[in-house]
Structures are given as structure tokens and as C-alpha cells.
Design a protein that fits this description.
13% helix; five-stranded mixed β-sheet; alpha+beta; Sulfite Oxidase, Chain A, domain 2
């Protein structure tokens, strides 16, 4: 199937699937594509991201004059890069407001003129089993700013936090090994000081003017409203999320979710289903679906339905037009993982992003059913394996009710 036909088919099934159920397979296949607010665009507009921000009041809800006053505007933003007072790294050139050396917006843009990094990443909270949004994140590698402080020795970790209403109890902090900051593992882009999302400057809601974005991790590592980077000799993580019994080192998991599934279908008629897959650190090989009678007993020693009669769904190709604030929906040539000549992904599905899928369920007798979907990653592990524990990211098998009458 060609890229354009497959994309049109996804939109048609996703937006008009319920209406098409009574039309029969031939009419379903011949319908023209229809625009619909139910269709899931590849890049999520900034205002459409789900929000899980912290703060009382929420920093992005401060009045415009207060945003300027506290440094949450591009004109007044400043970043300090400091040694940890309790476990100090040795720095020759700390960046501080007191000395007038803190990095400001103009300084960040000068760094950006020399080198920027942009990559596609799905943003997900590890305690919510569905992505918050999908974006192309652009910024300056964090290591370029770390080196401005001239670190010398006793540097093992980097922790960072953002504006928190001048209340120490509201600090939300995350950390990384200095090795991850200074050197990228194979196949991963750098950790960045992000100032653009989908071609536009970050809004306050999305953590602007500047936030951290860590490509391979859940959202709690990508701290918003960045104000401080602290270089420390501390040998372990000191993230705020540790207090919530969370796994601090968990990379993104691979899992499937539905977008459209009719709540009711006619007996004997095919049922179109569409969905998305979060492509985790282990990639995505297949999406599979299975419909079973509601209440059907299942062996207790098979909690993840590994012996169920799963059927492969179709993973759709990369979009012909990515969307966002880009001319003709074409991503910048420098985007990590894209062929600079064609603008197409060098690998699809791309790890750390999302992919769309579709399936066509055969007609079913009248009754009540449960629809399930799952992924198989590139290591052959079926969702929710190999890491089924919620505190390292929720990836349980989704169950949706379906009535056939």
C-alpha cells in the first residue's frame, strides 16, 4: 500500500469508521477521505498536549507581567549553572546571576547559531498509560552549556530544576549521569535545552521559554521552566520523582492504544479499528489485535494473554506531511533520524516516537465482546513485557468493550 493511500485509509477509518459500518466493505474502501477533529495528527499542536504540570499556582497560569518578572519570558529568562553546595563539582566559571554571567536568551541564541539539535519524541508521563503529545523538539545540547562553566573534576551527575513560585517545597528536580549529558549512546540524540516545539517557540504551557528534553525518558526527566543546572559529585539520582516510588532510570516502553473503535456494531459486518503505538527504546515490530467474548475465562497463569489468537494489524508508514509549523509539512533536514535528501525516516517506526495502525475485524455474531491490542517490540517481547511494572511506565494491555447487535 502506498504512503498516501494508507494515510487516507487511516483517516477514513478513524474519522468515519462508525458511520461506515453499515455501508459494507466495498463502499468503505471507496469512500473519499474526510477531515475530522477525531483524526489524530502526527505532530500534536502545542495547545493540544495533555498537561500534567506541577505548581501552586501553575507557573504558566501566572499573569503576563508576573511571567516577565520571574524570568519566564524570553526577554528576562536566565539560567544559572552552579556547583552543588553539598557535593560540589569543581568549576572554573560558574554561570551566576550574582556575577552577571548567567546564560540569557541572547546567549542561548548565539549557541543555537553554532549548533542545534532537533528530534522527534513522544512525551509521556510514566504514570499515565497514554502519550501526552508528539513533537519535534529543538534546542541546544545541554553539554554545550555545561562546558561553558568549565568543569574540572568531581563531576558525576547533573541535576536541574525550574521556576517553582519561590517556594522550596515546590521544587521539581530531575537528574542525569554526566556521562549521558556529555556523550550520546548509539542511536540517541543529545539531551537539549529546548526552546522550540513543532517549529514554534515554546509556550509557557509547554515549559517555555526553555525546558530540558531528554529523548529516551519519560516526561519527569524533561523539566519545564528551566532556571538552574547544578553540577554535583553526588553518586546517585536525587529526582523529586523518587519520593513517589517511581523508577528513575526507566526508558520509554513500547505499547499500543486504540483511537477509534465503535461501541456498537452490526452482526456479521466488518469492524474498522484504528490506533497508535508508542515506540519505546526497543522499537516496534508488530501491532496485534484480538477480540474475545466478554467474561470469557482465561488461565490465571497467562496474565498477559500470550496464548491468545492475536492477529497482526497494519502499521501505517510515516506521514507524507508531518504537520506542525513547517512549510508543506516537511521537517528540517537536520532532524535526527531523517534522510537529509528525502526528508524521510531512515528507520520506521522510529524509536521514541509514535506510529499509527489500523485493523479490520471480521464480522461477529451478536453479543458482548472485549477488544484488546498489543505490541511486539524488535526484541520479540510482547506488551507489557519485558518491563510489566507500572512504576517504570504504564504499558498494560488495553481492553475496550464492544457490543455487536
Amino acid at each position: 500500500m502506498t504512503d498516501s493511500c494508507s494515510r487516507r485509509s487511516f483517516l477514513r477509518l478513524g474519522a468515519a469508521g462508525a458511520a461506515a459500518l453499515g455501508a459494507g466493505p466495498d463502499l468503505l474502501a471507496s469512500q473519499e477521505p474526510q477531515a475530522s477533529p477525531d483524526f489524530d495528527p502526527y505532530l500534536t499542536p502545542q495547545e493540544k498536549f495533555r498537561d500534567v504540570s506541577r505548581g501552586n499556582p501553575l507557573p504558566h497560569k501566572l499573569p503576563p507581567e508576573k511571567l516577565v518578572q520571574v524570568g519566564l519570558s524570553r526577554e528576562t529568562w536566565k539560567l544559572e549553572v552552579l556547583p552543588d553546595p553539598e557535593h560540589p563539582a569543581v568549576l572554573r566559571n560558574p554561570l551566576t546571576k550574582a556575577k552577571g554571567t548567567a546564560l540569557d536568551w541572547d546567549g542561548l541564541m548565539k549557541l543555537a547559531a553554532k549548533r542545534t539539535a532537533g528530534f522527534l519524541k513522544v512525551m509521556t508521563c510514566n504514570n499515565i498509560g497514554r502519550p501526552l503529545g508528539m513533537g519535534l523538539w529543538e534546542g541546544v545540547p545541554l553539554r554545550d552549556v555545561v562546558w561553558l562553566s568549565a568543569p574540572q573534576e568531581d563531576l558525576r551527575r547533573v541535576f536541574y530544576y525550574g521556576y517553582h513560585n519561590d517556594d522550596p517545597k515546590q521544587i521539581f528536580r530531575s537528574s542525569l549521569s554526566v556521562n549521558r549529558v556529555l556523550e550520546d549512546p548509539p542511536g540517541l540524540p543529545p539531551v537539549i535545552l529546548c526552546f522550540k516545539l513543532n517549529g514554534k517557540f515554546l509556550t509557557p504551557e509547554r515549559g517555555g521559554p526553555v525546558r530540558i528534553v531528554v529523548p529516551e525518558t519519560y516526561g519527569f526527566k524533561s523539566v519545564k521552566w528551566l532556571s538552574h543546572v547544578v553540577l554535583t559529585n553526588l553518586p546517585h539520582a536525587n529526582d523529586t520523582y523518587a519520593d513517589g516510588n517511581n523508577d528513575l532510570d526507566s526508558p520509554l516502553k513500547t505499547y499500543a492504544r486504540t483511537i477509534s473503535l465503535p461501541k456498537e456494531a452490526k452482526a456479521g459486518e466488518a469492524i474498522p479499528v484504528t490506533g497508535l503505538a508508542q515506540v519505546g527504546i526497543s522499537g516496534l515490530a508488530r501491532v496485534q489485535v484480538w477480540t474475545a467474548p466478554a467474561g470469557e475465562p482465561w488461565p490465571a497463569d497467562d496474565p498477559y494473554f500470550t496464548n491468545a489468537p492475536w492477529k497482526d494489524a497494519e502499521i501505517l508508514p510515516a506521514p507524507a506531511s508531518w504537520g506542525g509549523d513547517f512549510p508543506e509539512g516537511r521537517l528540517p533536514e537536520s532532524t535526527f533520524g531523517l534522510d537529509p535528501r528525502s526528508g524521510r525516516p531512515q528507520r520506521w517506526p522510529m524509536p521514541l516516537t509514535k506510529a499509527h495502525w489500523k485493523a479490520r475485524l471480521p464480522g461477529l455474531p451478536a453479543g458482548k465482546y472485549v477488544f484488546r491490542c498489543r505490541t511486539i517490540d524488535e526484541n520479540g517481547a510482547a506488551q507489557p513485557m519485558p518491563r510489566p511494572f507500572d512504576k517504570s511506565g504504564r504499558a498494560g494491555i488495553e481492553e475496550k468493550p464492544l457490543v455487536v447487535a
